[in-house]
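Reopening this one. Same input as before:
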Amino acid sequence: MKDRIQAKLLQLRSHLLPGERQLGWMPIFNLGFLAFLFMPLLFSSLGVDYSLRVPDVPFAPTLFSLVVFLPLYFLLYRSSGVQAILCMLGIGSLALLLLPFNPFSNTYLIYAIAGAAFLDARLLQRLAWVVLLLGAFLFEILLLRVPVFIFAITAIISVAVFTSNHFQVENERKRVALKLSHDEVKRLAALAERERIGRDLHDLLGHTLSLITLKSELAGRLLDRDPGAARREIDEVTWVARDALSQVRLAVTGIRAAGLATELASARRMLESARIQFNYSLQDVKLEPAQETALALVVREAVTNIQRHARARAVRVSLEASNGRARMQICDDGHGGEIVPGNGVNGMRERIEGLEGKLQIGSRRGKGTRIDIEFPISSDVNEVSRNGAGKPISMQWNS
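Same output, byte for byte:
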Protein backbone atom coordinates (compact mmCIF):
# COMPACT_ATOMS: atom_id res chain seq x y z
CA MET A 1 0.00 0.00 0.00
CA LYS A 2 2.83 2.39 0.90
CA ASP A 3 4.64 1.69 -2.36
CA ARG A 4 1.45 2.27 -4.34
CA ILE A 5 0.87 5.65 -2.69
CA GLN A 6 4.50 6.60 -3.31
CA ALA A 7 4.19 5.63 -6.96
CA LYS A 8 1.05 7.75 -7.33
CA LEU A 9 2.78 10.74 -5.74
CA LEU A 10 5.78 10.39 -8.03
CA GLN A 11 3.47 10.16 -11.03
CA LEU A 12 1.68 13.32 -9.92
CA ARG A 13 5.01 15.13 -9.49
CA SER A 14 6.12 14.09 -12.98
CA HIS A 15 2.96 15.66 -14.40
CA LEU A 16 3.48 18.92 -12.53
CA LEU A 17 7.27 19.36 -12.77
CA PRO A 18 9.83 18.56 -15.50
CA GLY A 19 11.97 15.61 -14.50
CA GLU A 20 15.04 16.77 -16.42
CA ARG A 21 15.57 19.69 -14.04
CA GLN A 22 15.72 17.34 -11.04
CA LEU A 23 13.85 19.77 -8.81
CA GLY A 24 12.53 17.06 -6.53
CA TRP A 25 9.69 17.97 -4.18
CA MET A 26 11.01 21.44 -3.30
CA PRO A 27 8.72 23.45 -5.66
CA ILE A 28 5.71 21.66 -4.16
CA PHE A 29 6.93 22.20 -0.59
CA ASN A 30 7.42 25.89 -1.42
CA LEU A 31 3.67 26.19 -1.93
CA GLY A 32 3.42 26.15 1.86
CA PHE A 33 4.37 29.84 1.83
CA LEU A 34 0.93 30.56 0.37
CA ALA A 35 -0.26 30.34 3.96
CA PHE A 36 0.94 33.94 4.40
CA LEU A 37 -1.92 35.04 2.17
CA PHE A 38 -4.30 33.98 4.93
CA MET A 39 -2.53 35.83 7.72
CA PRO A 40 -5.16 38.62 7.69
CA LEU A 41 -7.76 36.06 8.74
CA LEU A 42 -5.56 35.02 11.64
CA PHE A 43 -4.94 38.60 12.73
CA SER A 44 -8.62 39.40 12.42
CA SER A 45 -9.53 36.46 14.65
CA LEU A 46 -7.01 37.71 17.23
CA GLY A 47 -8.43 41.22 17.12
CA VAL A 48 -5.30 42.69 15.55
CA ASP A 49 -5.57 45.52 13.03
CA TYR A 50 -4.10 43.89 9.95
CA SER A 51 -5.42 46.29 7.36
CA LEU A 52 -2.32 48.53 7.33
CA ARG A 53 -4.48 51.34 5.89
CA VAL A 54 -5.77 49.02 3.17
CA PRO A 55 -9.59 48.94 2.99
CA ASP A 56 -11.11 45.93 4.70
CA VAL A 57 -12.76 44.11 1.82
CA PRO A 58 -14.07 40.55 1.36
CA PHE A 59 -11.47 37.77 1.17
CA ALA A 60 -12.85 36.35 -2.10
CA PRO A 61 -10.19 38.03 -4.31
CA THR A 62 -7.47 36.10 -2.48
CA LEU A 63 -9.19 32.79 -3.12
CA PHE A 64 -9.69 33.69 -6.78
CA SER A 65 -6.02 34.64 -7.09
CA LEU A 66 -5.00 31.14 -6.00
CA VAL A 67 -6.94 29.65 -8.91
CA VAL A 68 -4.93 31.83 -11.29
CA PHE A 69 -1.60 31.43 -9.49
CA LEU A 70 -1.28 27.63 -9.37
CA PRO A 71 -1.37 27.00 -13.16
CA LEU A 72 1.07 29.88 -13.75
CA TYR A 73 3.39 28.56 -11.04
CA PHE A 74 3.74 25.05 -12.45
CA LEU A 75 3.77 26.29 -16.05
CA LEU A 76 6.74 28.53 -15.20
CA TYR A 77 8.89 25.47 -14.42
CA ARG A 78 7.98 23.87 -17.73
CA SER A 79 8.35 27.00 -19.88
CA SER A 80 11.22 28.82 -21.48
CA GLY A 81 11.74 32.03 -23.39
CA VAL A 82 8.80 34.41 -23.75
CA GLN A 83 6.33 31.97 -22.20
CA ALA A 84 8.37 31.78 -18.97
CA ILE A 85 8.59 35.59 -18.83
CA LEU A 86 4.82 35.88 -19.24
CA CYS A 87 4.25 33.38 -16.42
CA MET A 88 6.60 35.33 -14.15
CA LEU A 89 4.90 38.64 -14.99
CA GLY A 90 1.50 37.04 -14.46
CA ILE A 91 2.45 35.97 -10.93
CA GLY A 92 3.93 39.41 -10.23
CA SER A 93 0.74 41.05 -11.50
CA LEU A 94 -1.28 39.03 -8.98
CA ALA A 95 0.72 40.69 -6.20
CA LEU A 96 -0.07 44.14 -7.55
CA LEU A 97 -3.75 43.44 -8.21
CA LEU A 98 -4.31 41.80 -4.83
CA LEU A 99 -2.50 44.41 -2.71
CA PRO A 100 -5.62 46.65 -2.28
CA PHE A 101 -7.44 43.62 -0.87
CA ASN A 102 -4.68 41.80 1.02
CA PRO A 103 -1.50 43.40 2.41
CA PHE A 104 0.23 40.00 2.29
CA SER A 105 -0.02 39.84 -1.50
CA ASN A 106 3.75 40.40 -1.50
CA THR A 107 3.90 36.61 -1.24
CA TYR A 108 3.13 36.44 -4.97
CA LEU A 109 5.86 38.97 -5.72
CA ILE A 110 8.41 36.77 -3.95
CA TYR A 111 7.25 33.77 -6.01
CA ALA A 112 7.63 35.82 -9.22
CA ILE A 113 11.15 36.98 -8.36
CA ALA A 114 12.11 33.46 -7.35
CA GLY A 115 10.92 32.31 -10.79
CA ALA A 116 13.00 35.00 -12.48
CA ALA A 117 16.12 33.07 -11.46
CA PHE A 118 15.01 30.19 -13.71
CA LEU A 119 14.63 32.32 -16.84
CA ASP A 120 16.81 31.33 -19.77
CA ALA A 121 18.63 34.66 -19.91
CA ARG A 122 21.82 36.36 -18.78
CA LEU A 123 22.16 37.34 -15.14
CA LEU A 124 21.86 41.07 -15.88
CA GLN A 125 18.62 40.50 -17.76
CA ARG A 126 17.19 38.49 -14.88
CA LEU A 127 18.26 41.18 -12.41
CA ALA A 128 16.51 43.76 -14.59
CA TRP A 129 13.24 41.84 -14.20
CA VAL A 130 13.77 41.76 -10.43
CA VAL A 131 14.27 45.52 -10.31
CA LEU A 132 11.19 46.05 -12.51
CA LEU A 133 8.96 43.94 -10.28
CA LEU A 134 10.21 45.51 -7.07
CA GLY A 135 9.88 49.00 -8.58
CA ALA A 136 6.26 48.39 -9.58
CA PHE A 137 5.48 47.05 -6.11
CA LEU A 138 7.11 50.08 -4.43
CA PHE A 139 5.12 52.46 -6.65
CA GLU A 140 1.82 50.83 -5.62
CA ILE A 141 2.83 50.79 -1.96
CA LEU A 142 3.46 54.53 -2.07
CA LEU A 143 0.25 55.06 -4.03
CA LEU A 144 -1.86 53.17 -1.46
CA ARG A 145 0.09 54.67 1.44
CA VAL A 146 0.94 51.25 2.81
CA PRO A 147 3.88 51.33 5.27
CA VAL A 148 7.16 51.18 3.36
CA PHE A 149 8.60 48.59 5.73
CA ILE A 150 6.47 46.02 3.89
CA PHE A 151 8.41 46.80 0.73
CA ALA A 152 11.72 46.59 2.63
CA ILE A 153 10.88 43.14 3.99
CA THR A 154 9.67 42.00 0.57
CA ALA A 155 12.84 43.24 -1.14
CA ILE A 156 15.14 41.51 1.35
CA ILE A 157 13.33 38.17 1.10
CA SER A 158 13.02 38.42 -2.69
CA VAL A 159 16.71 39.10 -3.24
CA ALA A 160 17.65 36.26 -0.90
CA VAL A 161 15.36 33.81 -2.70
CA PHE A 162 16.54 34.98 -6.13
CA THR A 163 20.20 34.54 -5.09
CA SER A 164 19.54 31.06 -3.74
CA ASN A 165 17.73 29.97 -6.89
CA HIS A 166 20.40 31.55 -9.10
CA PHE A 167 23.13 29.45 -7.49
CA GLN A 168 20.89 26.39 -7.73
CA VAL A 169 20.50 26.99 -11.47
CA GLU A 170 24.23 27.53 -11.91
CA ASN A 171 25.04 24.33 -10.01
CA GLU A 172 22.57 22.45 -12.18
CA ARG A 173 24.18 23.80 -15.34
CA LYS A 174 27.61 22.79 -14.08
CA ARG A 175 26.28 19.34 -13.22
CA VAL A 176 24.85 18.93 -16.72
CA ALA A 177 28.10 20.15 -18.27
CA LEU A 178 30.08 17.75 -16.10
CA LYS A 179 27.81 14.87 -17.08
CA LEU A 180 28.22 15.72 -20.76
CA SER A 181 31.98 15.83 -20.25
CA HIS A 182 31.91 12.42 -18.55
CA ASP A 183 29.76 11.00 -21.32
CA GLU A 184 32.17 12.33 -23.95
CA VAL A 185 35.18 10.91 -22.11
CA LYS A 186 33.38 7.59 -21.81
CA ARG A 187 32.54 7.62 -25.53
CA LEU A 188 36.12 8.40 -26.50
CA ALA A 189 37.40 5.72 -24.14
CA ALA A 190 35.05 3.17 -25.69
CA LEU A 191 36.17 4.22 -29.16
CA ALA A 192 39.84 3.90 -28.20
CA GLU A 193 39.15 0.50 -26.66
CA ARG A 194 37.45 -0.73 -29.82
CA GLU A 195 40.42 0.42 -31.86
CA ARG A 196 42.81 -1.29 -29.47
CA ILE A 197 40.82 -4.52 -29.64
CA GLY A 198 40.86 -4.32 -33.44
CA ARG A 199 44.63 -3.86 -33.48
CA ASP A 200 45.17 -6.67 -30.98
CA LEU A 201 42.99 -9.09 -32.93
CA HIS A 202 44.68 -8.11 -36.18
CA ASP A 203 48.14 -8.68 -34.68
CA LEU A 204 46.99 -11.88 -33.01
CA LEU A 205 45.11 -13.51 -35.87
CA GLY A 206 46.61 -11.94 -38.98
CA HIS A 207 49.89 -13.91 -38.93
CA THR A 208 48.22 -17.03 -37.54
CA LEU A 209 45.52 -17.21 -40.22
CA SER A 210 48.09 -16.53 -42.94
CA LEU A 211 50.20 -19.41 -41.61
CA ILE A 212 47.17 -21.72 -41.49
CA THR A 213 46.31 -20.79 -45.10
CA LEU A 214 49.82 -21.50 -46.36
CA LYS A 215 50.13 -24.81 -44.56
CA SER A 216 46.67 -25.91 -45.66
CA GLU A 217 47.55 -25.18 -49.28
CA LEU A 218 50.87 -27.00 -48.87
CA ALA A 219 49.14 -30.01 -47.33
CA GLY A 220 46.74 -30.07 -50.27
CA ARG A 221 49.60 -30.13 -52.78
CA LEU A 222 51.49 -32.84 -50.81
CA LEU A 223 48.46 -35.03 -50.29
CA ASP A 224 49.00 -37.11 -53.47
CA ARG A 225 52.85 -37.02 -53.64
CA ASP A 226 53.77 -37.36 -49.92
CA PRO A 227 50.87 -38.25 -47.61
CA GLY A 228 53.20 -38.35 -44.58
CA ALA A 229 54.39 -34.79 -45.16
CA ALA A 230 50.81 -33.71 -45.79
CA ARG A 231 49.77 -35.25 -42.45
CA ARG A 232 52.58 -33.38 -40.68
CA GLU A 233 51.44 -30.12 -42.22
CA ILE A 234 47.85 -30.82 -41.16
CA ASP A 235 49.05 -31.62 -37.62
CA GLU A 236 50.89 -28.30 -37.57
CA VAL A 237 47.77 -26.53 -38.79
CA THR A 238 45.85 -28.16 -35.93
CA TRP A 239 48.47 -27.04 -33.40
CA VAL A 240 48.55 -23.47 -34.76
CA ALA A 241 44.74 -23.27 -34.70
CA ARG A 242 44.58 -24.49 -31.09
CA ASP A 243 47.26 -22.01 -30.07
CA ALA A 244 45.36 -19.19 -31.79
CA LEU A 245 42.15 -20.25 -30.02
CA SER A 246 43.97 -20.16 -26.67
CA GLN A 247 45.31 -16.67 -27.38
CA VAL A 248 41.88 -15.43 -28.46
CA ARG A 249 40.38 -16.75 -25.22
CA LEU A 250 43.02 -14.90 -23.21
CA ALA A 251 42.36 -11.73 -25.17
CA VAL A 252 38.60 -12.02 -24.68
CA THR A 253 39.11 -12.62 -20.95
CA GLY A 254 41.10 -9.40 -20.78
CA ILE A 255 38.44 -7.52 -22.71
CA ARG A 256 35.65 -8.77 -20.47
CA ALA A 257 37.56 -8.02 -17.28
CA ALA A 258 36.19 -5.07 -15.37
CA GLY A 259 38.88 -2.50 -14.67
CA LEU A 260 39.21 -1.23 -11.11
CA ALA A 261 40.16 2.30 -12.23
CA THR A 262 37.13 2.43 -14.53
CA GLU A 263 34.85 1.26 -11.74
CA LEU A 264 36.24 3.86 -9.34
CA ALA A 265 35.60 6.58 -11.92
CA SER A 266 32.04 5.33 -12.32
CA ALA A 267 31.63 5.26 -8.52
CA ARG A 268 32.79 8.85 -8.36
CA ARG A 269 30.14 9.95 -10.88
CA MET A 270 27.40 8.09 -9.03
CA LEU A 271 28.32 9.41 -5.59
CA GLU A 272 28.94 13.01 -6.61
CA SER A 273 25.52 13.10 -8.25
CA ALA A 274 24.12 12.18 -4.81
CA ARG A 275 26.21 14.93 -3.11
CA ILE A 276 28.50 12.38 -1.42
CA GLN A 277 32.22 13.09 -1.03
CA PHE A 278 34.40 10.35 -2.51
CA ASN A 279 38.12 9.77 -2.15
CA TYR A 280 40.40 6.82 -2.71
CA SER A 281 44.06 5.86 -2.42
CA LEU A 282 45.63 3.02 -4.40
CA GLN A 283 49.07 1.49 -4.33
CA ASP A 284 50.47 0.22 -7.60
CA VAL A 285 49.40 -3.34 -6.85
CA LYS A 286 49.95 -5.86 -9.63
CA LEU A 287 46.71 -7.78 -9.88
CA GLU A 288 45.73 -10.62 -12.14
CA PRO A 289 42.71 -9.92 -14.41
CA ALA A 290 40.46 -12.17 -12.32
CA GLN A 291 41.50 -10.39 -9.12
CA GLU A 292 40.98 -6.92 -10.57
CA THR A 293 37.59 -7.93 -11.95
CA ALA A 294 36.49 -9.29 -8.57
CA LEU A 295 37.55 -6.08 -6.78
CA ALA A 296 35.87 -3.91 -9.42
CA LEU A 297 32.57 -5.78 -9.03
CA VAL A 298 32.82 -5.58 -5.22
CA VAL A 299 33.36 -1.81 -5.46
CA ARG A 300 30.36 -1.54 -7.79
CA GLU A 301 28.07 -3.45 -5.43
CA ALA A 302 29.30 -1.64 -2.31
CA VAL A 303 28.99 1.85 -3.82
CA THR A 304 25.51 1.08 -5.15
CA ASN A 305 24.40 -0.01 -1.67
CA ILE A 306 25.93 3.10 -0.09
CA GLN A 307 24.23 5.40 -2.58
CA ARG A 308 20.85 3.74 -2.06
CA HIS A 309 20.76 2.98 1.65
CA ALA A 310 23.61 4.42 3.73
CA ARG A 311 22.69 8.14 3.76
CA ALA A 312 26.42 8.80 3.90
CA ARG A 313 28.26 12.08 3.46
CA ALA A 314 31.67 10.60 2.62
CA VAL A 315 33.05 7.34 1.20
CA ARG A 316 36.65 6.15 1.10
CA VAL A 317 38.28 3.25 -0.78
CA SER A 318 41.88 2.15 -0.22
CA LEU A 319 44.01 -0.64 -1.69
CA GLU A 320 47.46 -1.68 -0.50
CA ALA A 321 49.63 -4.78 -0.45
CA SER A 322 52.36 -6.25 1.72
CA ASN A 323 53.81 -9.66 2.48
CA GLY A 324 52.18 -11.23 -0.54
CA ARG A 325 48.62 -10.17 0.37
CA ALA A 326 46.42 -7.43 -1.03
CA ARG A 327 44.03 -5.54 1.25
CA MET A 328 41.13 -3.32 0.25
CA GLN A 329 38.90 -1.28 2.53
CA ILE A 330 35.62 0.44 1.66
CA CYS A 331 34.13 2.59 4.39
CA ASP A 332 31.40 5.20 4.72
CA ASP A 333 30.05 7.47 7.46
CA GLY A 334 26.39 6.55 6.94
CA HIS A 335 23.81 5.52 9.51
CA GLY A 336 25.12 1.94 9.71
CA GLY A 337 23.16 -0.71 11.53
CA GLU A 338 22.60 -4.42 11.14
CA ILE A 339 23.55 -5.81 7.73
CA VAL A 340 21.09 -8.37 6.36
CA PRO A 341 22.99 -10.57 3.87
CA GLY A 342 21.35 -10.62 0.47
CA ASN A 343 22.31 -11.54 -3.06
CA GLY A 344 24.63 -8.54 -3.32
CA VAL A 345 26.55 -9.24 -0.10
CA ASN A 346 26.70 -12.96 -0.80
CA GLY A 347 27.95 -12.26 -4.31
CA MET A 348 30.75 -10.04 -3.00
CA ARG A 349 31.81 -12.68 -0.48
CA GLU A 350 31.75 -15.46 -3.09
CA ARG A 351 33.95 -13.47 -5.46
CA ILE A 352 36.56 -12.83 -2.79
CA GLU A 353 36.44 -16.41 -1.52
CA GLY A 354 37.00 -17.50 -5.13
CA LEU A 355 40.35 -15.69 -4.86
CA GLU A 356 41.13 -17.68 -1.68
CA GLY A 357 40.53 -14.53 0.31
CA LYS A 358 38.06 -13.29 2.91
CA LEU A 359 35.59 -10.43 3.18
CA GLN A 360 34.40 -8.98 6.47
CA ILE A 361 31.69 -6.35 7.01
CA GLY A 362 31.52 -4.24 10.15
CA SER A 363 28.64 -1.85 10.75
CA ARG A 364 27.54 0.04 13.83
CA ARG A 365 24.47 2.22 14.02
CA GLY A 366 25.44 5.84 13.57
CA LYS A 367 29.09 4.91 12.89
CA GLY A 368 28.88 3.86 9.25
CA THR A 369 29.92 0.63 7.54
CA ARG A 370 33.34 -0.81 6.70
CA ILE A 371 34.17 -3.63 4.30
CA ASP A 372 37.58 -5.29 4.71
CA ILE A 373 38.90 -7.49 1.91
CA GLU A 374 42.08 -9.54 1.93
CA PHE A 375 43.43 -12.13 -0.51
CA PRO A 376 46.81 -13.52 -1.58
CA ILE A 377 48.63 -12.23 -4.65
CA SER A 378 50.89 -14.61 -6.48
CA SER A 379 53.31 -12.15 -8.09
CA ASP A 380 55.71 -9.76 -6.41
CA VAL A 381 53.96 -6.53 -5.61
CA ASN A 382 55.54 -3.27 -6.59
CA GLU A 383 55.06 -1.18 -3.50
CA VAL A 384 56.33 1.99 -5.10
CA SER A 385 53.40 4.34 -5.48
CA ARG A 386 52.22 5.83 -8.72
CA ASN A 387 53.79 9.17 -7.84
CA GLY A 388 57.15 7.52 -7.20
CA ALA A 389 57.39 8.85 -3.65
CA GLY A 390 56.85 5.63 -1.76
CA LYS A 391 53.39 6.63 -0.55
CA PRO A 392 50.00 5.75 -1.96
CA ILE A 393 48.44 8.25 -4.30
CA SER A 394 45.38 9.92 -2.82
CA MET A 395 42.75 11.28 -5.19
CA GLN A 396 39.91 13.20 -3.64
CA TRP A 397 36.75 14.31 -5.36
CA ASN A 398 34.35 16.66 -3.64
CA SER A 399 30.79 16.80 -4.79
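So the earlier flakiness isn't reproducible anymore. For the record, The two ends are 35 Å apart (CA to CA).
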